[in-house]
Automatic annotation (TrEMBL):
UniProt xrefs under PANTHER family: PHYTANOYL-COA DIOXYGENASE FAMILY PROTEIN (AFU_ORTHOLOGUE AFUA_2G03330) (PTHR37563:SF2)
Transmembrane segments: 63-84, 91-111
UniProt source species: Emiliania huxleyi (strain CCMP1516)
Keyword field contains Oxidoreductase: no
InterPro entries in alphabetical order: Fungal_Metabolite_Diox (IPR051961), Phytyl_CoA_dOase-like (IPR008775)
SUPFAM superfamilies: Clavaminate synthase-like
Protein name: Fe2OG dioxygenase domain-containing protein
Alphabetic keyword roster: Membrane, Signal, Transmembrane, Transmembrane helix
Signal sequence, renumbered to the chain: 1-18
Pfam families for the chain: PhyH (PF05721)
UniProt KW rRNA-binding keyword: no
């Protein structure tokens, strides 16, 4: 998803570390994080250009820890022995040893290329995500509701009303199951190529986005090659009446354009993201986040298209229905107790989907990826951006595709008048 980039993460870890565990706080004052959640999300997903490679085979973490502890102990003895043998007083030698250890700790934290800090950040963000998950379990789960893709054009007003009230719409059959399966194979092949390029440092442009909670998760930018282009076109053509206010939309007979005015993206929205979200077994739950901050109008609409059946164990996307509003954002970013109540009470929708079905959601909606306990889950996704929306950080799109495609250009329709 969006690779937000401007802020430094360095403030985040101390802030998160200072946060007591949720369970130790009284319900009314409990806080998930002293940093605003949007900042947590943004900070954690930043770092476009950082490619997460699969963990390589190697000694287990326990063995590594034992090795480090053993080495450190040996160093302490050797250092102390060397000093005292050289005639240094025991107390002075002990103090010098402490100084050396503190310097080594600081060196590890600040001069190891950021690895220690990144690990601490990841674990702090994960703690927040897990605590949020526990809270959301208390919120009501909405019964499944979806619209067949063909009904988007014929019942645009109803689809728009549903999207407007909840911020998310489930659409069945956006891709044929067979086309979803073909695209999945293509995406998986592309993943292997992109990983090899990343390992060899031969990628001509950035291939991966800085997705939240990166362990076992990839945000893989997709080239507009034939399998991707044909899937994108098929999906966009069916969603066009909802995405665009004029031109393509007005052609659908009997559609009530006015009722969609608050949601649609306006004339000829820009292709802003084209990517695949791949989560493998072991991918942790993401923190709750919106993709953009609150704006009075929808800035982005994203479609997550399932390239396989997404079952609960695969960690489907969760959506907090109705949280794309100013009031919900104020609560989410406000007092800790407000956020807690919001998470406890906002009805949830879970993105369990048949192959080829999709969720279409407003970028202001609070959502996240679930914990994957089972195996690979592949979502094809694309985002359209309203021309009128405020400046946003770059989305998950190959640089070579940026600013080049719009809904109309993809559908072969005449471009918007300048
Ligand atoms: O993995 C998912 O289902 C959602 C991912 C997401 O929301 C994100 O990466 O921002």
């Amino acid at each position: 998803m969006l690779a937000l980039s401007a802020l430094s993460t360095s403030f985040l870890v101390p802030a998160l570390r200072a946060s007591p565990p949720l369970s130790s706080l009284p319900a009314q004052s409990a806080g998930l994080s002293p940093a605003p959640p949007a900042v947590v999300a943004e900070a954690a997903r930043r770092g476009g250009g950082v490619v997460r490679m699969e963990e390589t085979e190697g000694p287990s973490e326990t063995l590594q820890a034992l090795g480090v502890a053993g080495g450190l102990t040996a160093f302490c003895f050797a250092f102390f022995y060397a000093l005292t043998s050289a005639g240094v007083d025991d107390v002075v030698a002990g103090n010098l040893l402490l100084v050396a250890l503190a310097a080594a700790g600081a060196g590890l934290f600040f001069f190891d290329g950021g690895a220690t800090q990144a690990a601490l950040e990841a674990s702090a963000v994960q703690q927040v995500a897990n605590e949020e998950g526990d809270l959301m379990e208390q919120a009501p789960l909405l019964p499944p509701a979806s619209l067949p893709a063909a009904a988007v054009a014929t019942s645009t007003a109803a689809a728009a009303a549903s999207l407007e009230s909840e911020g998310v719409l489930f659409v069945d059959g956006l891709l044929e199951a067979s086309e979803a399966a073909r695209l999945r194979s293509h995406v998986e092949e592309w993943l292997e190529t992109a990983k090899t390029e990343a390992a060899d440092d031969t990628a001509p442009e950035q291939r991966f986005g800085g997705v939240l909670s990166r362990a076992s998760r990839y945000d893989l930018y997709l080239p507009l090659d034939p399998p991707v282009a044909s899937a994108l076109e098929a999906c966009a053509a069916q969603l066009a009446p909802l995405l665009e206010e004029e031109a393509l939309g007005k052609r659908s007979v009997g559609r009530v354009v006015d009722q969609c005015a608050a949601l649609v993206l306006g004339e000829d929205p820009e292709l802003f993201e084209l990517s695949a979200l791949i989560s493998d077994r072991g991918a942790p739950r993401q923190p709750v986040h919106p993709d953009t901050g609150f704006t009075p109008q929808t800035a982005l609409l994203t479609a997550f298209v399932a390239l396989q059946e997404v079952t609960p164990d695969l960690g489907p996307t969760f959506f907090l229905a109705g949280t794309h509003t100013r009031a919900a954002h104020e609560r989410f970013n406000g007092e800790p107790g407000e956020k807690l109540q919001l998470l406890r009470s906002s009805p949830r929708r879970i993105g369990t989907l048949p192959a080829g079905a999709a969720t279409l959601f407003d970028s202001r909606l609070l959502h996240g990826g679930g914990e994957n306990a089972q195996g690979r889950r592949v979502l094809f996704y694309f985002t359209f951006k309203a021309r009128e929306s405020p400046r946003l950080p770059k989305g998950s799109l190959l640089a070579s595709l940026r600013y080049r495609h719009s809904l109309r250009s993809l559908l072969g329709a005449p471009a918007a008048a300048a």
